[in-house]
Amino acid sequence: MTRRLILGSLSFAIASACVTQAFAGGLMDRISTGKSIRIGFASEPPYGFPGENNEPLGIVNTYVVEVLRRMGYKNIEPVVTDWGGLIPGLQAGRFDVITGGLAILQARCANITFSEPMMKSPVALLVKPGNPEKISSFEDIAGKGLTMVTGAGYSMIGYAKKEGVPETNIMQVPGPTEIVAAVVAERASAGVADYLSLREIAKKVGDKIEITDPDAMPEWTANYVGVGFNNDDKDFVAKFNAAQKLYLGTPAMMDALATYGYDEKMLPGDKSSEWLCSNR
Predict the structure, then answer these.
(1) Would you indicate the residue range of the signal peptide (predicted)?
(2) Which structural domains are found in the chain, ordered by start?
(3) How far apart, in whole angstroms, are the C-alpha atoms of residue 67 and residue 209?
(4) pLDDT at residue 1 above 70?
(5) Are 201 and 191 a contacting pair, CB within 8 Å?
(6) With helix as H, strand as E and coil as C, how does 92-138 read?
(7) CA angle 202–193–58, rounded 5-degree value
(8) Are 239 and 71 in contact (CB under 8 A)?
(9) Could you tell me which residues are beta bridge partners of residue 73?
(10) Model confidence, pTM
């Protein structure tokens, strides 16, 4: 065999190996060697939070664990982190899957691969009791020149700007607890976050705050929650999507998630991850 033929064969073998590796994906390789599927999530009730021994609880965690079980995967390893560490941790290989109230947004789609959406998450406002400023939308906040508070990196920042709220009137804090604190202390006239997170916090605060009707917000402000995967695992995502299609909206799913406040209005409808990645 000539040297050129040997090199050509070697190049073909290397290329074939690379293609095979790319197709298999890191997570499939991990599973094939008997390793666990590491689910990364932050403590963000009711979407995802740790129970005893870090058991993955909450809407999205419960959903994902069941879909994986139906796919035949039961070796699950929960990994609790902070919200800001989810996507970097996935990219760094510390997790295989990330969950929680992870909205499918164009900026995030540039870095990770999302499953098809599994829920619609409406946005609401948090105000003082009696809603003294009479606000129920971003348009009200902008028109009255009020200060709002939301979480750092939340999609609501972009939504508010789109509706005319100047950046100088948008206070950013770590999360829902700090959003409530800012409104209670009157550092902001309204807090903005997803309705379920606000409702969860309101249970602990009592009559110090009030949540506006999420239906008063424009429909386009609703987020659609998906499950995050590494870009190398598109083959696994396709299998996950096929399995979740058979589970989403079933009585079994609705019963399992009802305890966390999930209802039929939160089903994602006909929105796809492809559309959301291009339009949100």
Answers:
(1) 1-24
(2) 8-120+223-264 (3.40.190.10), 123-221 (3.40.190.10)
(3) 37
(4) no
(5) no
(6) CCCCCEECCCCECCHHHHCCCEECCCCEEECEEEEECCCCCCCCCCH
(7) 70
(8) yes
(9) none
(10) 0.81
